[in-house]
Amino acid sequence: MSICEICAAANLKSIVLQKVEAGAKDYPAAFQYRKLGPVRDIRAKSEFCVCCRWIHSIILRAHARRKTAALYNLQDGTLVECNLANPWSETMIGYRRLASEGSAAEVLRERVSWLELETLALEDRGDYHFSNNQLYVPHAIQWCELPIPTVSAFCAAQTAEEMEHRRFSGRYVDSELCPPALFGVWLDLCRRVHGDLCEKPTWLVKLSRPKNLKVIDVQRRALVDIDQDSSYVTLSYVWGKLEVLQLLKNNIDKLSQDGALTQENGVAAVVMDAMEVTAAIGERYLWVDALCIVQDDYENKMNRIRQMERVYGGALLTIAAACGRDANTQLPGVRSGSREPHQEIITFGDYALISGVVNLKSSLEFSTWNKRGWTLQEKLLSRRCLRFDIDQLFWECQCDSWCEETALETHSIFDGSRPLRGLLAESGRQYQAGHPLAPGDAFTKYTELVQDYTYRELTFEADILNAFTGILRALAINNDEEFLFALPESHFDWALLWESQGRQRDQKKNKTSFPSWSWLSWQGLIIWWAELMRKPTECPVIREITWYSLGTDGSARMITSREEIHEHGHDKNELLRSQWRNSSSSPPNRTLSASSAEFIDSGIIGAYTSHAHVRLKIDHDTGKAIIHNDVGLEIGSLSWSHKPWEAANDDRNDDLHELMVLSRRNIDLFGGEDRPTLNVMLVARQEDGGAVQRITVGTVDEEEWIKLERSWNYVEVG
Ligand SMILES: [Zn+2]
Ligand SMILES: [Zn+2]
Q1: Residue range(s) defining the domain that contains residue 546
Q2: Residue 186 domain flag
């Protein structure tokens, strides 16, 4: 066998032996694209070039998988490149940081182990024309020493020395089935090396274990009740719209009999497989929502839903069915024929290059499981996660991330700076301040969680609060926080400034009733712009008014937001605010509630604040509604992405719209050029004269606000 000119010039062997100097600020020259040509040439050269044959096999197999991987169709003209510029920016950042810290040796091995082959769906024009429409799919290539390490060998014998020696090396997934020994090795390593960091993480300490949990006894194949001290495993999966066996009031007795839980009796495939895995880990009890919550007992169901943080947090680990579309998808690798891992190998002397198992941009990018609203809290509330993905298994715990195709396991504690953690993290989103449920920096974490959550899909819109309740409960317990319709009371003024790309939910259709001021009542991604711009520890919002939550019994309760009230703050602020702000008192005709225990929130909030009517000009290009004063001067803008209010459109620019002041923008945070600015809410009056509805929020110039015809009124927002 020989090697073609292009492959010889690409010199893959030299890439694997690349040296990185400690302290290097940039990528070495060899870390660059190597153009390998169109697929038709590579195929033709496969006749004689061992390297082309290897490359062709990798891309062919990956693209044959496009039904499950959402890859494009491989064409003769599809261009192939080989490069070391990893697309996972986290890794690039990690590389730069580690290189400057002098741990270049480790970086070197890691970088090399993530060499990539890319296929680019470009028009074949004989050159590498860069197009906006280009699609590229990276295929991971990993480096390893000979003999080629395998998953079976790793499970069979692994001393600490062996493990460290092989670390960051590619690994051959040599079994059609996930070796049960692997579960044990990973769990054992996590328990011994990570200890309490994974057993009792800070975010879990204050959450109590569930009492009297109903679970599947995988030995007896029946439902049993366990006490607070019993160890159990949970399952996170996509239920889908299938008719699967559920626990109902009238089948509890039947399903509690030995041998009742079988495939013949209608137990979903994913549950049957999870029972096998539970037993293989050496555990006896498995919790699955469909079979462990009585589905037609509303009270029992809602009680359990309010305790999801306990159910998942209390589990030894969570089995995640990451590639399932519904409950009848098997866990890959549990039964024969359920996965077909395949890797292509090419050797150069003492080294080999081995292709990755998961030939996807990111195995999670296309995962239904990872896009579902419910699974976010199931994932975040799990101490350990055993994730069954297409053709390979992943481990994710509080300290580390492991997979089958790369040797990442180590006997030392994760040092907090390992870039691969970001790369393998299950969520595409990066949480900046550590575990999002851990105590501290609560509002930043809250906004990140809401963004992650609202990016996901819910089968039933009515679940918008239920599927997030476990997360809110954990945040509340860990930060001594109260939530009012999912808005944290400690930062209420700030939380009210959420912006949406979507539109208001049809609450009648969904049989829900969330107030318009809560993001729960809106569809689509929810963001807080101010949060993105601020510096840590600084609050972009200064409190100007006092909100009350109105109770169902006619009483009112003050919302004690912790944002600083600058009664004697900035001199300039003080001078300006005295011109529009009056004194306020508690809501008229309401008694103030003394005890919060008996208070039931009605969903309506009330406050005295400054109102004015303005004209709006919708600018669809920028997604803003420009606020004009009487003489047509621009005095501010409102977030206006997708016509949040159907009635307000370009034809009605002459209409007057009601704005009310919410808070002050902390201009110290937004640069010295900024003028004093107020946060405002656009509201709509209801025909019945009831509480006003929130339409959107924005900002207005304070000096211009003072010049408007204003009124100081009490308003209720529902
Ligand atoms: Zn070749
Ligand atoms: Zn661990």
Answers
A1: 482-718
A2: no
Q: Are both 492 and 394 inside the same structural domain?
A: no
CA 191 – ligand 2 centroid, Å: 6
Q: In 3D, which of 293, 312, 313 has the Cα closest to residue 303?
A: 293
Residue 435 domain flag: no
pTM of the model: 0.86
User: DSSP letters along 423-463, please?
Assistant: HH-SSSSPPTTSSTTSSSSHHHHHHHHHHHHHTSB-SSGGG
The CA 112 to ligand 1 mean position distance, Å, reads: 20
DSSP state of 324: -
Q: In this structure, what token pair is assigned to residue 148?
A: 């080629």
Ligand nearest to C-alpha 186: 2
- Is 434 contained in some domain? no
Final residue before a domain boundary, out of 408, 424, 440: 424
> What integer pLDDT is reported at residue 449 of this predicted model?
92
214 and 288 inside one domain: yes
Do 650 and 505 share a domain, yes or no? yes
- Centre of ligand 1 to C-alpha 166, Å, is 29
81 CA to middle of ligand 1, Å? 12
Q: How far is the CA of 51 from the centre of ligand 1 (A)?
A: 5
| Nearest Cα residue to 613 out of 663, 660, 664 | 660
Spatial CA neighbour of 12 closest among 352, 344, 359: 352
Rounded average pLDDT per 10-residue block, the chain, 718 residues: 86 62 49 77 93 89 66 73 50 39 43 61 49 57 85 84 76 91 92 91 89 95 96 94 90 97 95 97 96 93 90 96 88 92 88 75 66 89 91 84 82 53 42 74 88 88 92 94 95 93 79 91 87 66 92 90 62 82 86 78 95 89 87 91 52 76 81 81 89 94 95 95
The DSSP code sequence of 91-136 is HHHHHHHHHHHT-HHHHHHHHHTTEEEEEE-----SS----TT--E
Does residue 77 sit in the same domain as residue 225? no
Gap from CA of 47 to ligand 1 centroid (Å): 10
CA of 433 to the centre of ligand 2 (A): 19
Q: Distance from the CA of 197 to the center of ligand 2, in angstroms?
A: 7
Q: Are residues 514 and 641 in the same domain?
A: yes
Which of 407, 424, 441 is a domain's end point?
A: 424
C-alpha of residue 44 to centroid of ligand 1, in Å: 9
Separation of CA 285 and ligand 2 centre (Å): 21
541 closest CA partner among 517, 579, 569, 522: 569
Tell me the CA–centroid distance for residue 665 and ligand 2, in Å: 42
DSSP single-letter state for residue 338: S
**Å from CA of 257 to ligand 2 middle:** 36
Ligand 1: centre distance to CA 45 (Å): 6
132 and 203 inside one domain: no
Residue 184, classified by CB atoms within 10 Å of its CB into exposed (0-12), middle (13-18) or buried (19+), is middle
Residue 637's φ and ψ, nearest 5 degrees, are -150, 160
Compute, in angstroms, the gap from residue 49 CA to the centroid of ligand 1.
5
Q: Which residues, 6 or more positions from 15, have their beta carbon under 8 angstroms from its beta carbon?
A: 30, 82, 84, 112, 115
Tell me which ligand sits closest to the C-alpha of residue 49: 1
Ligand 2 centroid to 180 CA: how many Å?
18
Question: In total, how many domains does the chain have?
Answer: 3
- What per-residue confidence (pLDDT) applies to 432? 52
**Does residue 443 lie within any of the structural domains?**
no
Please check whether residues 519 and 665 belong to one and the same domain.
Answer: yes
Q: Domain check: are 220 and 127 in the same one?
A: no
Ligand 2 mean position, distance from CA 111 (Å)? 24
Distance 28 CA to ligand 1 centre (A): 24
The Cα 420–Cα 414 span in angstroms is 11
- Cα(162) to ligand 2 centroid in Å equals 20
